[in-house]
Amino acid sequence: MRLVLLGPPGAGKGTQSAWLIDYLKIPHLSTGDMLRQAALHDDPTGLEVRQFLQAGRLVPDPIVLDIVDHRLRELDCANGYLLDGFPRTIAQAEALDTHLASEGTPLDAVLELAVDEHRLVQRLTGRGRADDRPEIVPQRLQIYRRQTAPLLNYYFHQGILRSIDGNGTTKQVQSHIKRIVDRIGANQS
Ligand code: AP5
Ligand code: MG
Questions:
Q1: Contacts with 9 (C-beta within 8 Å, 6 or more apart), sequence order
Q2: Does some domain include residue 42?
């Protein structure tokens, strides 16, 4: 199964990915994790990525697309994957569509985790990640609204958007996601 998890910072993408990749036996492709890994290196790309992460700004598309393109070509992605935090711009979504079309492997669904903004701020404060600082979180939320939220319309028009209320407990959100992926699985078999 090929899935995208879409949602603002703090929506629970990482939290829900943890059980979902185990349940579906597919790899977890988190561009946030990949970029935090890249930022550990002192090469030019690492230094550039580090600056964007610390500022809570999106890393430029060419860098992200290069990393994702390599990852999608690895063998473990042959039977599906869960994309977490990618795509995040229309340009990224279009690049992904080009890749998917060339491989003949369409996405099965884009799962939107919708969470009220005050709850996002609560969830992100106190976790201790470098970009969870109080002066950076509002910036990340604004970038989501401006650059990533337009993807909801993009995937709605493709007919593959599934919106999930992400305000509940982790277990409640999990059971909602499970219902959706079970339905997709049943239609495929
Ligand atoms: P990324 O790592 O993707 O972070 P994010 O989207 O900003 O959000 P988080 O990881 O903080 O939130 P999440 O939705 O995973 O929530 P989580 O499960 O952790 O990106 C980081 C940066 O990398 C970006 O700012 C950008 O610079 C760069 N980047 C990444 N991808 C990029 C791309 N494609 N293009 C360009 N740049 C890119 O949960 C958050 C907290 O809430 C946790 O403490 C958790 O325990 C708690 N929680 C979760 N669910 C619940 C619940 N149901 N109830 C109560 N608490 C909950
Ligand atoms: Mg995350």
A1: 120, 124, 137, 140, 141, 144
A2: no
139 lines ligand 1 (CB under 6 A): no
Each residue's pLDDT, cut to its tens digit, for the chain (189 residues) gives: 999 999 999 999 999 999 999 999 999 999 999 999 999 999 999 999 999 999 999 999 999 999 999 999 999 999 999 999 999 999 999 999 999 999 999 999 999 999 999 999 999 987 888 899 999 999 999 999 999 999 999 999 999 999 999 999 999 999 999 999 999 999 988
Atom 50 of ligand 1, residue of closest alpha carbon: 12
Residue 189 lies in a domain: no
pTM equals: 0.97
6 located within any domain: yes
d(CA 185, CA 20): 13
Instruction: Say which CATH number the domain at 117 has.
Output: 3.40.50.300
31 Cβ below 6 A of ligand 1: yes
| DSSP code of residue 42 | -
Q: Is residue 72 part of a domain?
A: yes
